[in-house]
Hints:
One of its GO terms (molecular function) is transition metal ion binding. By secondary structure, the protein is an alpha+beta fold. It is about 25% helix and about 35% strand.
Amino acid sequence: MNIDYVDYKHAFLMAGLLIGLSSSSAAHAQTEQVNHEITIGVTTDSVEPESNHASQYQHAHHDDSSSMDLSYADEDNHQKHINLEDDEHAHVSASESEPHSPHEESLHNDDSQYNDKNAEEDEHQQGITLSPEKIALADIQIRAIQPEIQFSTVYAPAEVLVNGYSSYVVSPRTESVIISRHAALGEHVKKGQKLVTLFSEEMVQAQADYLIASTEWQRVKTLGNRIVSDSDSVQAKTAFKAAFGKLIAYGVTQAEINNISNNDVTSFGEYTLIAQRDGVVLQDDFIQGQRVDAGEAVMLLANEQQLWVEAKISPYKQLELTANAPAIVELDGQTYQASVIQESHTIDPVTRTRIIRLLVNNSDDSLHPGMFVKVHFQFATATKVIAVPEQALIRSPDGDWMVFVEDHPGEFQAVEVELGRALGSNREILGLANNTRVVTKGAFFVASEIAKGGFDPHNH
């Protein structure tokens, strides 16, 4: 048999095997695999009988394989190896069918070790361990949180005013001319101290009427009922009281009235207004010789030991304020205790705000009417809540809020929380159990340390 016949025979056998492989793959629906190994030996000098060739084919059928290996010898008696795979694996790259070199096996082992190492790191990427020295250096503060009554604060701009209940306006009760002053602006005066002396034409007539009525009444009392009739006695007494009352109404003091009869007639019409209580002269808008009308303010006296503060809030802000509700008045960093005394039920026509009036103690005399201050209204929570300082809250990479919890000494884990109400400088949080140790100061430092270590500080 020549070489052409042998090649033809080889091709025929290979084609038959391919047809058998396709049929077997379809019958077993990708669940059975076929592996045919055929070894054909051919030499250039002699050809074995066909039966011998067939006996050299080794056909092995396996359930877990869908490939065929053909091995034969070419004309040069070199061994040839053919691997046939079904259509299901026809597109596998040549690199996958080739055996791996020792270098590739080493790389594969390194990748496996790297993946295992990453898996181990993922288990610890939610936190960090800090030494006591680093915690002390960063001034990290940790507190076991407990439900407590918290206070919320509402801010409002305000103005300091005089206490309308402890101040009064000094004014003449009849048209007068200012002759002289006895107290200056800002001066602290005592009750009964002279403030200003005035002159009035009406006062001249009132003093003259009093002098006449007083003289007549003294004469009637001296004569007695045996000489003066009862009607004359009543008339004299009534005229005296009317003249006396008129002077009192004009603001003349009892001492000044008693001295009228001793005064020279040239001093008639003069009278002096005195301080009715201790206080400070807050206003004295007048000059000597000025004519002022009845009721026109000459001075304003006020006791600054307690002042009013009027806060302006939006009419749409609902505040559950009650009498004596606590508040804090702030001026240049200094605070004063205050309490709510009144709440306006009308809207200011100019500012369109609602007025809340407070009473503030000013024992050190550092507050004065006209100052602009800040008012912080304080509201206590009805129940105990868990709250942490605002600085304890950190944003996670996906935008959620979280805090750092100390599971063990020096070991910190990031835990997501839900935010509740704003309570002054604190914030209500939900999602943590009682007595959980939370970083209340230095949370940003802990987050930065985790970030430097290449970790993700987000706890899912």
